[in-house]
Specification:
222 residues; alpha/beta; Ubiquitin-like (UB roll); Rossmann fold; 2 domains; nine-stranded mixed β-sheet; 4 helices; 12 strands; 30% helix; elongated
Length: 222
């Protein structure tokens, strides 16, 4: 009899945890998906949300949603236990206007085309890029470099317009200066040099007409 009881207890110890785990996982099965934030730009495939809120593979699903919805910049996932997931969507925001012969659109810091914009207070990148469409990532080197310039100078330079200067450089236009920048070089040291130059010019009360940063040493004309 004692052996039977011990065997029964042993069986419970073996099988019991399995049933407990299954019960917990079933209790936390995902049943509801709530989309908030910039929800209008997202199409959610609920088949992606299998499993439960405890073990939900957030990173892989976020990447898939971003791949399917290129206007989505980021998504925060908030778990409301036991069975609800909230997706907090953040859309891409333009930092400049991209002006082509056929359209004026927004463009964000990743060179992704965003909503069509009107009279927003943002620099104009005027470069001929064909087949511009919403959510498209622009591959043109001059546009990509222009976007980096806009993003990298926001604290020290009021950029009005950027145009293509030649096949290897862009022209950055401010109220008082034209700045020439190579389009195929690392922009970070170039902008560091530009910021140092502008700080010195402002201390002296002199703003140059042109700053040429295409060479090893800046060429400045007043």
């Amino acid at each position: 009899m004692r052996k039977i009881i011990l065997g029964f207890v042993g069986l419970l110890c073996l099988v019991g945890p399995i049933f407990i785990v299954r019960f917990i996982l079933k209790s936390f099965t995902i049943k509801d998906i709530v989309v908030s934030g910039d929800a209008a730009i997202v199409q959610v495939n609920e088949k992606q949300f299998v499993g439960n809120t405890l073990l939900f593979p957030a990173l892989s699903v976020i990447k898939q949603i971003q791949d399917d919805n290129p206007l989505v910049k980021s998504i925060d996932i908030k778990k409301h236990f036991p069975s609800t997931l909230e997706l907090i969507v953040h859309k891409r925001q333009p930092i400049a206007q991209l002006k082509t012969p056929t359209a004026i659109v927004g463009i964000d810091e990743d060179a992704v085309v965003t909503d069509v914009v009107g009279n927003i207070d943002a620099p104009v990148i005027e470069i001929d890029v064909p087949l511009v469409r919403m959510g498209q990532t622009i591959r043109d080197e001059s546009v990509k470099q222009s976007v980096k310039v806009v993003a990298g100078t926001v604290t020290f330079l009021n950029v009005l317009q950027i145009t293509k200067n030649d096949s290897l450089s862009i022209r950055v236009i401010t109220k008082q200066s034209s700045i020439f920048i190579p389009q195929n070089k690392d922009i970070r040291p170039i902008l560091d040099t530009l910021q140092t130059l502008m700080s010195g010019f402002r201390i002296k009360g002199l703003i140059p007409k042109t700053i040429d940063l295409r060479f090893d040493k800046p060429v400045v004309q007043f």
